Inverse folding.
């Protein structure tokens, strides 16, 4: 790998791991032209100060200090924005990912021109079964099924990207774990590779079982982005049409009773039918507004609704 490689590492309250992380990077990547962009995500334990001290004698170390704790996705996006390399590598700052795996992954990417993303799989994961493994297995199964990009380990931060694969991906909220699926919709080829995983030696984990719920909520957003971003009327309009149909049927039934002389004024069905009809109209309206916004997004700035590859390549199945 002759071109510059950018190592992007979001880091939060990892002062106990900072020195060892920098040493391991320098040792593992000694033969590679690289820059290490460590994004301090508003640490409160002095991590940022220590990174500044380490960067003073290491030109390849380029810390970024965020004003507050924004979360891993925003920190990772800040690293992507600052990265100058044609290949971008991400990993965690707690040394559970092993920097020694990076040269092997870079060599694999160089030898496989039809692959755009190598995604790490912590097959021998060194975490507590209940707290991390079980929620992770549930989340990975859900994400793989919904996105159509089957990976064993979406949560593994050790990934290698060709720069072009990230050109159309922007991270908000907690979408960092969905990068392979988001990039795949723009034609990126994804392959999963087994990587080393170590037990945490210092500091405390920032993950918990509550992350499974967050994954489910984020998954709803990803599902919408992947399937309905350019046709929101089909999502909102479809639900709205169903609600309007049910509400209209209820009101038609009550109207028939009213014409037959029945008193319908105190019936809960009247309120329910009216609400369903109103909600349906609102959702259809949201779908129409969404269609207008999609056109505003694409047309004034000349953004294309599709991407064209320069050279046709065989499309290997997602691993």
């Amino acid at each position: 790998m002759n071109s510059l490689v950018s190592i992007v590492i979001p880091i939060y309250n990892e002062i106990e791991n900072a020195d060892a992380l920098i040493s391991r990077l320098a040792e593992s990547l000694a033969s590679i032209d690289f820059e290490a962009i460590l994004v301090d995500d508003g640490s409160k334990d002095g991590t940022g100060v220590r990174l500044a001290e380490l960067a003073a004698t290491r030109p390849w170390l380029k810390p970024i200090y965020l004003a507050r704790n924004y979360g891993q996705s925003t920190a990772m996006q800040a690293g992507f924005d600052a990265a100058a390399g044609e290949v971008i590598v991400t990993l965690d700052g707690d040394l559970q990912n092993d920097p020694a795996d990076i040269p092997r992954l870079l060599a694999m990417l160089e030898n496989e021109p039809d692959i755009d993303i190598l995604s790490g799989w912590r097959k021998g994961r060194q975490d507590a079964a209940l707290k991390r493994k079980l929620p992770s297995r549930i989340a990975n199964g859900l994400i793989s099924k919904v996105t159509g990009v089957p990976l064993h380990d979406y949560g593994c931060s050790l990934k290698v990207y060709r720069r072009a694969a990230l050109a159309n991906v922007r991270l908000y909220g907690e979408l960092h774990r969905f990068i392979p699926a988001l990039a795949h919709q723009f034609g990126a080829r994804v392959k999963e590779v087994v990587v080393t995983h170590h037990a945490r030696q210092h500091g405390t984990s920032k993950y918990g079982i509550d992350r499974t719920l967050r994954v489910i909520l984020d998954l709803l957003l990803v599902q919408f982005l992947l399937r309905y971003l350019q046709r929101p009327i089909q999502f909102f309009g479809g639900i709205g049409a169903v609600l309007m149909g049910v509400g209209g049927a209820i009101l038609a039934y009550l109207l028939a009773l009213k014409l037959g002389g029945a008193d319908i004024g105190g019936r809960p069905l009247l309120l329910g039918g009216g609400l369903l009809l109103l909600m349906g109209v609102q959702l259809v309206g949201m779908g129409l507004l969404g269609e207008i916004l999609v056109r505003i997004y694409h047309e004034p700035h000349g953004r294309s609704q599709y991407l064209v590859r320069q050279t046709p390549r065989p499309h290997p199945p997602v691993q």
